[in-house]
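Researcher: Watch the backbone:
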Amino acid sequence: MSLFKKFTSLFRVGTARPQPQSDAGDSELVRVDIVGEASYQRELGILAGPKTEDGVSVWKPAELVPEPNNPYDPQAVVARIEGYTVGYLSRAKARAFHRMMAEFYPAGEPLTEVKAEIRGGWLRAGGDEGYFGVALYVQERIARRLEDE
Protein backbone atom coordinates (compact mmCIF):
# COMPACT_ATOMS: atom_id res chain seq x y z
CA MET A 1 0.00 0.00 0.00
CA SER A 2 1.39 3.42 -0.90
CA LEU A 3 2.14 5.97 1.81
CA PHE A 4 -0.57 8.24 0.41
CA LYS A 5 -3.17 5.46 0.68
CA LYS A 6 -2.02 4.69 4.22
CA PHE A 7 -2.46 8.37 5.14
CA THR A 8 -5.86 8.71 3.55
CA SER A 9 -7.09 5.53 5.23
CA LEU A 10 -5.84 6.73 8.65
CA PHE A 11 -6.97 10.35 8.48
CA ARG A 12 -10.66 10.84 8.09
CA VAL A 13 -12.61 13.91 9.03
CA GLY A 14 -13.88 13.62 12.58
CA THR A 15 -11.40 10.97 13.75
CA ALA A 16 -8.30 11.30 15.89
CA ARG A 17 -5.15 11.86 13.86
CA PRO A 18 -2.26 9.64 14.96
CA GLN A 19 1.15 10.81 13.87
CA PRO A 20 2.07 9.42 10.45
CA GLN A 21 5.18 7.27 10.03
CA SER A 22 7.96 7.96 7.55
CA ASP A 23 8.58 5.69 4.56
CA ALA A 24 11.62 4.25 6.31
CA GLY A 25 9.53 3.47 9.38
CA ASP A 26 12.47 4.32 11.63
CA SER A 27 11.47 7.82 12.68
CA GLU A 28 8.15 9.53 13.12
CA LEU A 29 7.11 12.40 10.98
CA VAL A 30 6.67 15.60 12.96
CA ARG A 31 4.22 18.40 12.23
CA VAL A 32 5.63 21.75 11.13
CA ASP A 33 3.17 24.62 10.80
CA ILE A 34 3.43 27.22 8.07
CA VAL A 35 2.05 30.75 7.82
CA GLY A 36 0.09 32.67 5.22
CA GLU A 37 -2.33 29.99 4.06
CA ALA A 38 -5.18 32.53 4.13
CA SER A 39 -3.57 34.23 1.12
CA TYR A 40 -3.63 30.99 -0.90
CA GLN A 41 -7.20 29.79 -0.49
CA ARG A 42 -7.79 29.63 -4.26
CA GLU A 43 -4.74 27.41 -4.72
CA LEU A 44 -5.67 25.22 -1.76
CA GLY A 45 -9.18 24.84 -3.18
CA ILE A 46 -7.72 23.64 -6.46
CA LEU A 47 -5.53 21.12 -4.63
CA ALA A 48 -8.11 19.90 -2.09
CA GLY A 49 -11.28 20.14 -4.13
CA PRO A 50 -14.43 22.00 -3.19
CA LYS A 51 -15.40 22.77 0.37
CA THR A 52 -17.69 20.22 1.99
CA GLU A 53 -20.03 20.24 4.97
CA ASP A 54 -17.51 18.33 7.11
CA GLY A 55 -14.35 19.81 5.59
CA VAL A 56 -11.52 17.89 3.98
CA SER A 57 -8.32 16.10 4.84
CA VAL A 58 -6.18 15.61 1.73
CA TRP A 59 -2.57 14.38 1.76
CA LYS A 60 -0.07 15.51 -0.87
CA PRO A 61 3.70 15.56 -1.28
CA ALA A 62 5.13 19.04 -0.72
CA GLU A 63 8.44 20.83 -0.89
CA LEU A 64 10.12 23.71 0.91
CA VAL A 65 11.93 26.01 -1.50
CA PRO A 66 14.25 28.94 -0.73
CA GLU A 67 12.94 32.16 -2.29
CA PRO A 68 15.97 34.50 -2.42
CA ASN A 69 14.18 36.98 -4.72
CA ASN A 70 11.29 37.48 -2.31
CA PRO A 71 10.85 41.28 -2.09
CA TYR A 72 9.94 41.16 1.61
CA ASP A 73 12.53 38.70 2.90
CA PRO A 74 15.48 37.24 0.95
CA GLN A 75 15.58 34.42 3.55
CA ALA A 76 11.96 33.40 2.80
CA VAL A 77 11.14 29.72 2.32
CA VAL A 78 7.99 28.93 0.38
CA ALA A 79 5.88 25.79 0.83
CA ARG A 80 4.68 24.38 -2.49
CA ILE A 81 2.34 21.57 -3.41
CA GLU A 82 2.17 20.48 -7.05
CA GLY A 83 3.82 23.77 -8.01
CA TYR A 84 1.30 25.92 -6.13
CA THR A 85 2.46 28.21 -3.34
CA VAL A 86 0.42 27.39 -0.21
CA GLY A 87 2.30 29.33 2.48
CA TYR A 88 5.70 30.04 4.01
CA LEU A 89 7.84 28.96 6.91
CA SER A 90 7.83 31.51 9.73
CA ARG A 91 10.85 33.84 9.72
CA ALA A 92 12.53 31.91 12.55
CA LYS A 93 11.94 28.55 10.87
CA ALA A 94 13.16 29.95 7.54
CA ARG A 95 16.46 31.02 9.09
CA ALA A 96 16.86 27.61 10.71
CA PHE A 97 16.03 26.02 7.34
CA HIS A 98 18.83 27.97 5.63
CA ARG A 99 21.33 26.94 8.32
CA MET A 100 20.31 23.29 7.97
CA MET A 101 20.41 23.38 4.18
CA ALA A 102 23.87 25.00 4.18
CA GLU A 103 25.13 22.21 6.39
CA PHE A 104 23.51 19.17 4.78
CA TYR A 105 22.23 19.98 1.28
CA PRO A 106 23.46 21.75 -1.86
CA ALA A 107 22.89 25.53 -1.77
CA GLY A 108 19.51 26.70 -3.04
CA GLU A 109 18.04 23.19 -3.25
CA PRO A 110 14.46 22.50 -2.15
CA LEU A 111 13.65 20.09 0.64
CA THR A 112 11.38 17.47 -0.89
CA GLU A 113 11.12 15.05 2.07
CA VAL A 114 7.84 16.70 3.07
CA LYS A 115 4.26 15.45 3.34
CA ALA A 116 1.38 17.91 3.55
CA GLU A 117 -2.14 17.66 4.90
CA ILE A 118 -4.61 20.16 3.52
CA ARG A 119 -7.49 20.31 5.95
CA GLY A 120 -10.47 22.41 6.91
CA GLY A 121 -12.48 23.96 4.12
CA TRP A 122 -15.94 23.33 5.50
CA LEU A 123 -19.07 24.99 4.20
CA ARG A 124 -22.20 24.48 6.29
CA ALA A 125 -25.74 25.71 6.14
CA GLY A 126 -26.21 29.13 7.64
CA GLY A 127 -22.96 30.52 6.25
CA ASP A 128 -20.51 28.72 8.58
CA GLU A 129 -17.39 28.51 6.43
CA GLY A 130 -13.83 27.51 7.29
CA TYR A 131 -10.56 28.29 5.57
CA PHE A 132 -8.25 25.61 4.27
CA GLY A 133 -5.08 25.15 6.31
CA VAL A 134 -1.88 23.19 5.76
CA ALA A 135 0.24 21.15 8.13
CA LEU A 136 3.57 19.86 6.90
CA TYR A 137 5.14 16.68 8.21
CA VAL A 138 8.89 16.11 8.05
CA GLN A 139 11.26 13.58 9.53
CA GLU A 140 11.97 14.20 13.19
CA ARG A 141 15.63 15.04 12.54
CA ILE A 142 14.55 17.83 10.17
CA ALA A 143 11.82 19.14 12.47
CA ARG A 144 14.31 19.49 15.31
CA ARG A 145 16.46 21.68 13.07
CA LEU A 146 13.49 23.89 12.18
CA GLU A 147 12.37 24.58 15.73
CA ASP A 148 11.74 28.25 16.44
CA GLU A 149 14.54 29.84 18.40
Summary: Residues 1-26 have pLDDT under 50 and may be disordered. The longest helix spans residues 91-104.
